Amino acid sequence: MSTPVEPASNGDTRPNLALARGPFQERVTRSSIAAWENVLCVGIACVDIVDELACFPDEDSEQRSLGRIRRLGGNGANMLCTLSQFDGAKSSLMFASAPRESDPNVAFVGDELCRFNVTQVPVLIKEWKGTVQMPTSYILQSRLTGSRTIIHYRNIPELTCADMAGNVDLSTYTWVHFEGRSGPDLEGMLRASVHAGCTISLEIEKPRPPFDMLTLLRYCNVVMIGKDFVKAQGFAHAREFLVNLWSQRQTLGIKLHAKIVLPWGEEGAFGIAFGENVTRDEAEAGPEIIYAPAATLDKPILDSVGAGDVFNGSLVVGLLRGQPLHEAMRFACNIAGGKCTQQGLEHLTKFVSEDKRGL
Question: Where would I find the Carbohydrate kinase PfkB domain in this sequence (predicted)?
Answer without folding.
Answer: 301-345
